Please model this.
Amino acid sequence: MTDLLSLDLAAARDALRDGKISSLELTDAYLGAMEAASDLNCYITTTPDKARVMAAAADQRLAQGDALPLDGLPLGIKDLFCTEGILTTAGSHILDGFAPTYESTVTSQLWRDGAVMLGKLNMDEFAMGSANVNSYYGPVESPWKSRDGGNARLVPGGSSGGSASAVSARLALATTGTDTGGSIRQPGSFCGIVGMKPTYGRCSRWGIVAFSSSLDQAGPLTRTVRDAAIMLRSMAGHDPKDSTSANLPAPDFEAALTGDVRGMRIGVPKEYRIDGMPAEIEALWARGIEMMRDAGAEIVDISLPHTKYALPTYYIIAPAEASSNLARYDGVRYGLRVEGETLDDMYAKTRGEGFGAEVKRRVLIGAYVLSAGYYDAYYLKAQRVRALIKRDFDEAFGSVDAILTPTAPSDAFAIGENDDDPIKMYLNDVFTVPSSLAGLPAISVPVGLSGRGLPLGLQLIGKLFDEATVFRAAGVLETAAGFSVRPAGGQ
Amino acid sequence: MAALIKGETGDWELVIGLEVHAQVVSEAKLFSSAATAFGAAPNSQVSLVDAAMPGMLPVINQECVRQAVKTGLGINAKINRLSVFDRKNYFYPDLPQGYQISQFLQPVVGEGVLTIVLPDGEKSIGIERLHLEQDAGKSLHDQHPRKSYIDLNRSGVALMEIVSRPDLRSAAEAAAYVRKLRSILRYLGTCDGNMQEGSLRCDANVSVRKPGAELGTRCEIKNLNSIRFMQMAINHEARRQIEVIEGGGKIDQQTRLYDANRDETRSMRSKEDAHDYRYFPDPDLLPLILTEDYIADIAAELPELPDAKQARFIAEYGLSEEDASQLVEERETAAYYETVAEGRDKKLAANWLLSELFGALNKVGKGLAESPVSAKFLGGLIALISDGTISGRIAKDVFAEMFEHGRDADSIVEAKGLRQVSDAGAITDLIEAVIAANQDKVVEFKSGKDKLFGFFVGQVMQQSQGKANPQLVNQVLREKLNA
Amino acid sequence: MSLDKATVSNIAHLARIKVDDDQLETMVGELNNILSWIEQLNEVDTEGVAPLASVTGHPLPLRADGIADGGYPERVLLNAPDRVADFYSVPKVVE
Model:
């Protein structure tokens, strides 16, 4: 059992192809682990029957030697991806009972490539949150425990908290997540795993419940950089059903993992040394820089002058888009309806009861910044600043190939902490939001432990559609860091 | 030009601007591949995108863009090389996304102009813009005492919203504008113009003012689904506003609904909320960029439009302005006429179409599309008249036969032996016989009773069963009588 | 800019979200905190900077006209909370 779960995605792929293990036994091992660790609340819905049917089919193909790229590999899916005939909630009460009659492009590509679905993963409601405490289905717990005594339940980060915790606790071989302002990378950092957000437009958004359309991107959460490259190849690709999907083939990202960064220019932005950053984060970053330098990369000091404005920019644009994207949850065609005397009464009650506190806050902020008389001052201003943030990156990439920064300004905190202050919660994404606003690919790689024994990641940011360089640098960083600590609360 | 309205405090001037919503002719919807046909079973032409299912995304239909550009060129408007799709946010059950994808600040078509013809001359009406947007679904309010039913078949069908300047000064001008616009749309094939099915709908912005004064506060009247109702609604609304102002009141800017059964407008309860549509660029779409080549290609394919056609009919065919204008209003009429007139006497063709055929169709309450006489057959009849095979009088009989049985002129003329007699010898024989039989009348005629000439013509024609060539009869008869 | 209760109420109505009176006060405070934090953007000189329209600069793709979707009322009505025959249904609307 333990042996099976200890295989990473690449190793499991090889073992399946070599006939050393079967998909069914691998799948059963995960289903068993999921049940044993149900306290972590990673999954909203498990699909054991479907998983076994898919695994059996994969075993047949494997036996015939017709293995598909992900054949027989059991995955967990963030509950933001619509899955045909399977409850899809976005972590929200308002999607009560919603069983889509369609499959998202990203997940359909995973199944096309032979992967096995274990279930749907818990998340912050509508992907809004950085701690996975905003789910209607309850908070997700990280398998990690702090070394500083106490037995506090820690957050896995968010919004892809279920996805991150599940990979860390070995409740899935790999998972899908989505990242709008850091929702793959920050939980990746908190849980000691790899989280990759590709370039905006690399993965189709079709069938993914929308939060902020100009920012949302799907990506993988995995144990290793190689696993992320394998996953992304299946997830990515042009989709004519998404007007913002890039008309580019999905390259073999795994081939980019040459282990060689000699001559690569790695930028280190001075603006990421923010006030009040814990010394251990600063030290981790310095270690990462040393590792890259030792591997033969050239370290270049760069400036991204508008970095400090990224978060407020994000907190105008994302809520504005969300306020509009979430208008369709009105109790008419699917999900929750709370009856009312009049139509407006029905709308207001349905949405009042169906949305949680953070979602309501953001919808209201969003409606306000778009409202008559405020549009120019807020929304348009934010899009202008966003253009400046993008310009900062464009200029920096004139002299570097990738940028190295911390992923998050802290390690994981306890469930319940930071709940009272939305802005404090928002600050979790201070390092991840700028690259989101510019649409750039970025990955979080686990590099070390905090003083409390909790994982910390570093982020590598690349040029538009240059995931290959990001993966290559991340592979080297991963090898140099040799992060191999396992959470105490996992299997 | 402006028709002033008399009030108790003097004359009032009516100021009208129109927003015409024209459904684009296309197979599929603006942002989804579901069908657009009218009259389908409820919710049977609805895609997951149209029902705004979670995670669904819009992809634009190139034909709708093409049709909008074509229409823009047809109204002499500026085509914008870059345009942007925005979301107009509001809640309504027939708007499943909670927003309408429309164009706000940067529409695909900018300023244009449309010329209307009025009894006292031509008038140019400014067009402010044309933009593409999604149509809404339909709410049925009369099926259940406490519920409204929603059918999304129309949801997402492409609309062109064409906004005029407030250049119209009477209900008649507004009617002329809509007729002209409708005619152009139908010539272009960009909208079928069917107001009964809602393919063409109007909202009228109406205000009144003392002549020359500042613009008054306007009210928007919705739900105008025929030109007649639009005129009634505008006139009613103008009278209402004058009464309010003259009674010491003030006009509130509102959206009003026209009730044709009661001939009145009333404030729309559902629109009472001051709307704040929170427009912003749709992040699911990117800016629409059109190249000069693309626009030039469409311009090169534009059909001849009614104004140009009318001018050509007058200049080249020698038709009167009135006839030409009647012939070009409907694209089908003009096409029918051009088939009839092809290689034939243009004026004769116009007369026969406008008086004989339309007269006959009117009598039986049919339109040109249902005419039992095809353009080809009517053309055949004109040819027989022109080449002297039959006389104009016989032609009327032949036409009646054609109209009744749908047969062609040639076979009727052959079968009934109606060919005109133009043989001078045969006509002379006939005339001599008539003179011989009426010697008393000949004497009277020669003594100065000129009116009797008609009697002789009549006798000859009667003897020939109407087939004698009347001109020849006249000529020979005059020779014989004056001999 | 500072929001008052009436403004928040109005926005909540625009967004069709019922906010109980006892929550309203808290909401006003939270939204004002967020807004005043956001307003640091006023420090940025954006004179002459065009708002970002797209991160990748790719053109808008156009699809061919043709019927390739719809025709499945069951699929679109399947999840409807109050379906009557092949219609969605809502509390009666008075226009």
In short: Chain C is about 35% helix and 10% strand. The mean pLDDT of chain C is 94. The CA atoms of residues 72 and 78 of chain C lie 10 Å apart. The beta strands of chain C are 62-63, 83-84, 87-91.
